[in-house]
Amino acid sequence: MTRVWDTESPSAVHQPAPQTGLRRRRGYPFYLMFLGFPVWWALGLSAFIWPILAVPMALALTRQRPIRVPRGFGVWVLFLLWMLGSATRLNDPTRSLPFAYRAATYGAATIIFLYVYNTSEHLLSDRRIVLSLVVFWMVVTAGGFLGVVAPHFEFTSPMEKVLPGRLASNDFVHELIHPASAQISTFLGYAEARPKAPFEYTNDWGAVFALTTPFVIIGWSMLRSTTWRWLTRIFLVAAVVPVVGSLNRGLWLSLTLGLLYAGARLAARGRVRPLFGLVIGLTLVGSILLFTPLRGVIEARFAHPHSNQGRETLYLEAARSVLSSPLLGFGSPQPSVINPNLPSVGTQGQLWLVLYSHGIIGLAFYLGWYLVCFWQSRRGDPLIAFWCNVVIFIAIVQLPYYGQLPAQIQVTMTAAALSLRIRAGLRKQQLRSPSIETLA
What we know:
Layout: E1 5-7, H1 21-24, H2 28-35, H3 37-43, H4 49-62, E2 67-69, H5 73-85, H6 96-118, H7 126-149, H8 158-162, H9 165-168, H10 171-177, E3 182-185, E4 192-195, H11 202-219, H12 226-238, H13 240-245, H14 249-269, H15 272-290, H16 294-303, H17 307-321, H18 350-376, H19 384-398, H20 408-432
Parallel strand pairs: 1-2
Antiparallel strand pairs: 3-4
């Protein structure tokens, strides 16, 4: 009898298979998802491409037996079930559309995880996964520059023209389908463009930039072209401009803590050479910030913490409100009772979104899955799994103040699936060869 679900070892992680027909094209949905992102953004589909391209991934999984999952995956399944159950708490039909969108995004993240975890190395190689995320990071960086040099750039997407006017004019839908390069903020006392392309919000841009940066570090050892290596280095140094121009303290915090965490682990392992390179890179970036006009932008941002009070109000309201519905929450965010001018309660951070929308137990399942991925990804390949673990660490740091939907959770799930796939492959080799040296 064939088991549909199995644990620990992904199917044929390091086993050869024929490169013919449909199997040779197995990785195409993944590549289209990340490499084609500028096209999806221009079409107004960037927020929906994850569940759309998850469909062919799901079809590919249905043709595979067994579908394997890592230990602890049941925690995520419990979150999905609990999240769906919280739909019973929706008290307004207008809240059903955002709920369905978020549910589809969670489902897409699940399928992407299973797809990467189960697809073998020769059909979807570690190298191609990493380099796809490197190109995605370059797209994000280029979008940041677009927001800096052309802050008022925007256009009507084909998706806006296709959707019924009533739906396209909905504030929630409009933000998802209308491409624009930047958000204009005035809290510094003057208009300041904060890059957001190719995403809907500046915070999404900052979160994804931080999450994908570790893949650039991995990619340096995988790029076979000297030109591409130098191009990524140039992009990394130049990215300081949109990173600072985004005025995004969450990006600065999560990326700094992620690199410090990586440095501490490298030091503990006695890995002097990569640690030295990390220190040199941070010193170079610090010098750019210290001796250029960008320093003034950073000082001005910390001198105007305009959003702190509003965020604190929303966080406290979310924590207090959920006590009246601790099991299933309220299904999705709702307008603030304390201050209707603020964003909805349950926004401004994935932790608060899950807590308010799906209750305390839903949050426990969500955090539990992230901790499972973080803990299990600590061991594995010394390069890829190490930096994928850093990605998950950055995602955990971002949970209290950044949302994870729609793109951030896809990057995090890809990192988790890749690191756990490598770990399962190494465990399989160790079982076959007891004398093999542990690589972590």
